[in-house]
Design goal:
Elements (H helix, E strand, L loop, with lengths): L28 H9 L6 E6 L5 H18 L5 E6 L4 H13 L4 E4 L8 H9 L3 E5 L9 E5 L1 H16 L7 E6 L5 H14 L4 E7 L5 H15 L6 E4 L2 H13 L14 H9 L5 E4 L1 H16 L10 E3 L7 E6 L1 E4 L5 H5 L6 H4 L5 H6 L4
Parallel strand pairs: 1-2, 1-3, 3-4, 4-5, 5-11, 6-7, 6-8
Antiparallel strand pairs: 9-12, 10-11
Length: 367
């Protein structure tokens, strides 16, 4: 499944996959291509990530992209990094700065996929190519790589139903979705609803501002107050950080032993899976996504075709036929920790099984 080609379902954002190939070069044509080709390996890649609270961005994405750019440019390529710290206005300013400083290409993981469109156009008008990373930004982007986000939501929903078992039809859950400014959150939600609707009662549902665990915690406290602590049988959480915030609220209310989903395979999330506080997470191959983004960026900066890299196309609300690579995902539970995060080198057993978690690790054979 991890390397198989997958399809992304059509969403409200009109994201769709089409036949293999890459889109034509945007305005500038051969002049841009000739100019880019002359740069060779001496290129400057702007990397703009959305926030630094989720562990993946600083721990995985940034160093992996930097490493791959170096590999692809004989150590001559430079990565200029900026983190928006969940501030869309700041990210727009960061894009403008990189345009002024004349980077050759940008990799952008947008804080707000709509708000970034104007800045993407500024880059486009300046002849700077843009790779939309993880989130499908609006504006004239040139390439896109992410995961099959609808499938992520389906995977989470299916896991939650499996955990509830025969009691699912009589169960009531709380849905803790991601931020409404993130297009991926809408896709996760769509996938989850396609599995959960009609199979389980959804007592309360929240779009959690900025994906913050503390906001999920407050939402969960509100749900407990509204529904009653004996009336919540499971929690759909769109990521691990919010799962942690939700679980804190559940524990404070004396609610235990109910399944909670997650995503991103954060270390704290994996440790909660080991102890049984969290039922599952979604494991995503960040190395594959990051390396693909770097490959696309370097190729675009050099004026090369993406035909050998991108095997799909996507449509955003503003741009059609964007060359894309969609990376598959895996459901992570206590039964496949060794085959996922440990095998791929995300964490070692020692990192997961610290003194606090050693007994739980031993119980599930993780040693």
């Amino acid at each position: 499944m991890r390397r198989a080609a997958v399809a992304v379902a059509t969403t409200a954002m009109a994201v769709s996959l089409a036949a293999c190939g890459s889109a034509k070069e945007s305005d500038g044509g051969s002049d841009w291509s000739d100019s880019a080709a002359k740069k060779g390996d001496d290129i400057k890649v702007g990397l703009l990530l959305p926030e630094n609270q989720t562990a993946r961005y600083e721990k995985f994405d940034k160093p992996m992209i930097e490493k791959k750019v170096k590999e692809l440019t004989n150590n001559k390529g430079e990565v200029v990094y900026a983190n928006a710290k969940q501030d869309a206005s700041l990210q727009n300013q960061q894009v403008d700065t990189m345009v002024t400083n004349k980077v050759d290409v940008m990799i952008i993981d947008a804080v707000d996929y709509k708000a970034i469109a104007g800045s993407v156009k500024k880059a486009h008008d300046a002849g700077i190519k843009v790779v939309a990373f993880d989130r499908l930004a609006e504006g004239p982007i040139d390439a896109y790589t992410s995961f099959d986000n609808v499938t992520v939501g389906k995977t989470q929903g299916e896991a939650l139903l499996k955990a509830l078992g025969d009691k699912a039809k009589d169960s009531q859950i709380v849905m803790m979705n991601g931020s409404s400014t993130d297009p991926n959150a809408a896709q996760f939600k769509e996938g989850a609803h396609s599995v959960l609707d009609g199979k389980v009662k959804i007592g309360r549902e929240y779009d959690t501002k900025e994906w913050k665990p503390e906001n999920a915690n407050a939402n969960m406290e509100a749900a407990i107050s509204a529904l009653g602590k004996d009336k919540i049988d499971g929690v759909y959480s769109a990521n691990d950080g919010m799962a942690g915030g939700s679980i804190t609220a559940l524990k404070r209310a004396g609610i235990a032993d109910i399944p909670v989903t997650g995503q991103d395979a954060e270390l704290a999330g994996v440790q909660r899976i080991v102890t049984g506080e969290q039922y599952m997470s979604v494991f995503k191959s960040y190395p594959k996504e990051a390396e693909t983004a770097a490959e696309m960026a370097v190729a675009l900066a050099k004026g090369e075709s993406l035909d050998s890299i991108a095997n799909d196309k996507v449509d955003s609300a503003t741009t059609k036929g964007v060359p894309a690579v969609i990376v598959p995902v895996v459901s992570l539970t206590k039964d496949n920790i060794k085959e996922t995060v440990i095998k791929d080198g995300f964490y070692t057993i020692d990192e997961i099984c610290t003194d606090k978690y050693k007994a739980a690790c031993d119980k599930i054979g993780l040693k």
